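assembly run, all chains below
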Amino acid sequence: MHLGNSPRITNLWSKVVDGENGEWLTRVVVESTRPYEYTLKEINGGIVLECAGADVNMPEGKLEVNDGLLRDINIEQLGHDTVRVQMALDHPAVFKHAVYNDFPSRLVITLERSFITGLLSGKRIVVDPGHGGKDFGGRGPVSLLEKNVVLPIARNLEKLLKRTGAEVTLTRSGDEDLSGGERAGIAVKERADAFISIHTNASADSSVEGAASLYAPLDNGSEELARYIQEEIIKKLKVMDRGVAGQPALAGMDKGIPAVEVEIVTITNIVEEVFLRGLTIQKRAAEGIVNGLIKYFASDRPSTRGDKE
Ligand SMILES: [Zn+2]
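ok done. output:
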């Protein structure tokens, strides 16, 4: 029947892109040796592509994406003549698709990320790179300073959040030393919807490793925000999950402002110090924090529902 000549699916990838008219999109590309018959269906929480008469010619299984909208893509051979590609979504999305019969042949599915921009647009986020000036924060075994490495992470976070439509203020963009009160004061002045402080963990014990998210010990959504951020940065960084905990230093934060201090890995651990110097972690940490904020603003929090039932 196939005579070894079935269309073969050879590659599968996704990317966040800007559309021609300024839209923000997730693009999924399924490459194959030739076109095939297919169905594309919306299911609860995702999209399913079934490719008839095709063979998988790439590793089967789950590809983690976690781009804030698309969680993962699973590809599997069903029987001898169908390939199923299942896209799991974190949030609803309108999508369209097109087929390009080049070589390789490409089926392109484009998902609108407007759910995210709808949630974050106009939200005021204060991003606080920890320490600065004479206050170095933690120091790595090869002398990476916390105050320096948190800045590029904060700038990545600023850039990503601006793409969602959020309004972002950095508490410092240079090497200034600010007090905790000054940082909290900026959040109050900006009437922030969230305050995100970027730190690294530090320990006298060089074997300590991993990431944690610390919340303001106020009953205002801080803990919930910390849980979402923690879950999402662990997905992105694949480091030890040190969990969430209260941070007494954030107790002075205004009650109306959810506040979280994110400890992006442990600078005093030699492996994680090396990791921290890389541009990849600096970007992925920011992506994880944004994904946590999206989940937080998407959640049904009583505080955002007023006194409606
Ligand atoms: Zn710190």
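The mean pLDDT is 94.

The CA atoms of residues 50 and 84 lie 5 Å apart.

not gonna interpret more than that til we talk
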